[in-house]
Structures are given as structure tokens and as C-alpha cells.
Amino acid sequence: MGIKLAVVGATGMVGRAFLDVLEGKDLPIDEFYAFASKRSAGTAVILKGREFPVEELTEASFDRGIDIALFSAGASASEVFAPIAAKKGCIVIDNSSRWRMDDSVPLVVPEVNPGDIARHSGIIANPNCSTIQAVVALAPLAVRYGLKRVVYSTYQAVSGAGRQGWLDLEEGERGKPPKKFPRPIARNCLPHIDVFADGDYTKEELKMVNETRKILVLPNLPVTATCARVPVFIGHSESVNAELRTSFDLDELKALLARSEGVVMMDDPANGIYPTALDAAGADPVYVGRVRRDYSVESGVNMWIVADNIRKGAALNAVQIAERIIGGKGGRGCE
Length: 335
Ligand code: NAP
Prior knowledge:
alpha/beta; Rossmann fold; Dihydrodipicolinate Reductase, domain 2; 28% helix; binds NADP nicotinamide-adenine-dinucleotide phosphate
């Protein structure tokens, strides 16, 4: 028997990517619903050649036995509607930041902590895009060598800020002032993603710190981050410096990464091979390159990690969670 699936925020950057990812999958969908705000009601989206009306999201939206809802309509919509949906028996996979750090909500990257899916009580959180790609590569190192400290520096695409972020770059290239970003993003680099918070870190930086600890179940892991927005449309690039607990053989570490689920190595500097945002855009893997020893500490490694922030960083990760639930590996009562 198939499922009833909904996409909430179906007209947005991530919502469109949901449709794109679902297009390439063979999920047993019996009924499909697309929701967005009042603004989009009456428009339509297309999935597998069929047109579906976009409906305004309301409390009544979940009164039709929807099994799984993929949410990407922002934190305030998730705050209100995710519990309503869950109460009506729907499993919500939420892309916003609203539920990620809630103790009762699992924060899941299927390659890393699939077992956590089964702990849900109606809501499962998708991590922040920059955290997802980082932990896909860090998790195998954490298991094999242990992690002592992690330093993130990110170079994040404008699509991470939704439709208006994209437009700010497109129109900024024609000299228009930004609407989403605090400064022009065209021909610029902004060390400012989301709002400034405790200790003058941005919320994006704090998300990376806290979500990494939660996913890897290392609550005291020293992690620090500097997140920057760069004039790239799709694909977040990250310099990840990890200090390991034990010594390591570099070739063995690279081989471990190469066979890790979700990782594709692009690491042949002699031949100019390393991943860039353009390599990752539209693709599913987390690309890892520039893997090299950090000589400044006893046992450290530097990596360059790139992924499509809208696919693996959002829509694909959520659909992979849904696949596991549908496959019986993580639904309520499973595992
Ligand atoms: P976006 O392009 O601005 O799209 C927002 C979507 O949410 C639109 O479909 C919008 O509908 C809908 N929406 C807004 N308010 C709503 C409401 N009150 N009720 C129902 N629908 C509402 O943003 P996005 O980039 O797709 O991001 C959506 C969420 O995913 C955010 O929480 C974001 O943090 C998260 N996320 C984004 C990325 C990324 O790389 N972009 C990665 C990870 C997570 P209308 O078209 O009708 O306005």
C-alpha cells in the first residue's frame, strides 16, 4: 500500500527541490498534496507529469490522513503547524531550525544516525545545510579515530537564504541593492549568516556547533565556526579542520572516507582535482577533497567539503529520511 505525502512550502527554493528529488525516486505515493502560504494558493506544481494545486496551509490541511509531510516553510510555520500535523498522526520531517535542538526531536542525517529516526514522536528535524555535509564526512572519522576538536570555515551559496537570497545575487550583479542580505552579495563575501547572537557568533555558526554535537552524540566536543556567504548560487563549500584523538595514517583515513556512505572523494591535487560548488550543484553526494595533515597539532586533518545545499543540505536529506520510514526502518513502532 502506498502513502499520502505532502510538501509544505512547495513553492520555495527547498520545496521545488523536494519535487525534483521526488521525481527521481520511486516512492509509493498514493496521494500527494502541496501547501504554501495564502500568496501561492491557486498556483500549481508538477510531480511525475501530474499537476497538483498549491493549497494554503491551514490547520485543516492535515485532516485527510497524510502519512508524511516534508516541511520547508520557515521556523514560524513549523512552530505552529508541525505539532498540529503530528497530533493528527502525520510524521513531519522539518527543514527549519525550529525543532532541531528540542530533546524530544531526533536530528537526523541518514548516513550518520539513522537509528535516531525511530525515537521520533511525530517530528523529525533535518539539520542545517552546512552541518549535514560536514557530519557526513566527520562521522566516520569520529568512529575510527575519535574527535578532539573541530574548526569550521564555510563559504555558503546564496540559495541557502531562499528565493530572495538568489534574487539578491542575480539583481546585485545588475547593480541593484540587496533585499535579503545586510550588504551587497555580488562581488562580495559576507561573514554574516542569520543574526548575531551570543558572544558575537551568528546563529548559523551556533547551529553548526550545537547540531554537530547533537548528531554525533558528543555534547562536549569543542567546535567553532565562521560562516560566510559568498556570491555562488548553489553549493556550500567548507574548510573543516579536525583534531583527532588518536594518530592516523593519511592514506588509511582517505580510504575510510572514500568508502563512507554518501561521500565521493575528489582529491588529486597533482592533477588539479578537488571539489567546487559547480561540481556539486544538482548532484547528491558530499564531495571531499584537499585532505591533508594539519602539521600544527599532533593528530589533525584538513578537508574541503562541498555539497548541494538545497539537495543534500535540505530536500534530499529529508527524502532519504522519508525513504527509511517508508521502508520500515524508522517509523513509529519500527526498529
Ligand atoms: P523560500 O524559498 O523563501 O520558500 C519559503 C516557502 O515557505 C515558500 O513555499 C512559501 O510559500 C512558504 N511559506 C512561507 N510562510 C508560510 C506560511 N506561513 N505557511 C505556509 N507556507 C509558508 O525558502 P527556502 O530556502 O525554501 O527555505 C525554507 C525553509 O527551509 C527555511 O526554514 C530554511 O531555513 C530551510 N532550509 C533552507 C535551505 C536552503 O539551502 N535554502 C537549507 C536547509 C534548510 P509562498 O511561496 O506562498 O510564499
